[in-house]
Amino acid sequence: MLNLQATIPNQFIWPDDEKPCTEAPELDVPLIDLQNFLSASSSPSATLEASRLISEACSKHGFFLVVNHGISEELISDAHECMARFYDMPPSEKQKVQRKPGESCGYASSFTGRFSTKLPWKETLSFRFCDDKNSPNTVQDYFCDALGHEFLPLGKVYQEYCEEMSSLSLKIMELLGLSLGVSRDYFREFFEENDSIMRLNYYPPCQKPNLTLGTGPHCDPTSLTILHQDHVNGLQVFVDNQWRSISPNPKAFVVNIGDTFMALSNNIYKSCLHRAVVNSQSERKSLAFFLCPKKYRVVKPPRELLDSNTPRRYPDFTWSMLLEFTQKHYRADMNTLQAFSDWLTKKPIK
Ligand SMILES: O=C(O)CCC(=O)C(=O)O
């Protein structure tokens, strides 16, 4: 419905200092080729080079691209296609999986959120993925239970997509561990049995793209995001006081560090402010997998990253606490982690 409006409702108009800029130069992000690292006979020098590039990018802004990641083009294209099928449905069908207040899963359009200003020009469908052998089909079951058995094929596509994203994120965790001088297994093991979130973002065309935003500026509170953008530009990252674009590359995933990993790295790696802009010509779609630890695992940096000159930057917390904070108390922005940390010091971990 949004894209048919020649003028846009006031709730979608962002304040002048947050309105999108027309020119956003391309951000310099390294392209990490994972082919060698993922092969059985990976060479130490290729691994070293990949972890060096990752370290450089994550210390600065936390964004990098991965190619030759081992995820089939067919699966990625199916995931985009299924998204189109979902968003093409009438509103009454999509509302069967309406997100409830205070929850992070379900369908949300701007009119259903808890905010009434600075609304994002988009629709989203979010669902939970659990890397848990005891409940192996969380995604597939969600589609069938919430939307009906005819959604089994969609559920199967996203089940497989999330399983692949989870495996890829654990491989990236190995590289992050190596790049921080922690053992290769440390973060991989930390995120085993992850309790993650998958989000399908749909941005309709907008007749006034210079007044609004598809996704407002925020840092991801989660640990690691793996994003696939369709062929339409929109993702921007705030680096060196300037908004910069990351143009779509169909063969690449955009990976970024989230607040939880920033805390795990004791602030060495950055969780950076980003947003999505919209345009008047084309709709845009993106697939975002947000890696999160098991809900009650305590988030604290490994010993190797601390010494007497480098004290802890954040208190112990669990993902469940940070999630609750962003759902009930605070709209995620560039200061979420610090605000959460201040809030926590008044509320000890149970
Ligand atoms: O669609 C995009 O490019 C960015 C999406 C995003 O930042 C999010 O879903 O948190």
Automatic annotation (TrEMBL):
Its cofactor is L-ascorbate. One of its GO terms (biological process) is response to light stimulus. Pathway: Plant hormone biosynthesis; gibberellin biosynthesis; Hormone biosynthesis. Residues 193-293 form the Fe2OG dioxygenase domain. Transmembrane segments: none annotated. One of its GO terms (molecular function) is gibberellin 20-oxidase activity. It catalyses: gibberellin A12 + 2 2-oxoglutarate + 3 O2 + H(+) = gibberellin A9 + 2 succinate + 3 CO2 + 2 H2O. InterPro entries: DIOX_N, IPNS-like_FE2OG_OXY, IPNS-like_sf, Iron_ascorbate_oxido_reductase, Oxoglu/Fe-dep_dioxygenase_dom. Keywords: Iron, Metal-binding, Oxidoreductase. Belongs to the iron/ascorbate-dependent oxidoreductase family. GA20OX subfamily. This is Fe2OG dioxygenase domain-containing protein.
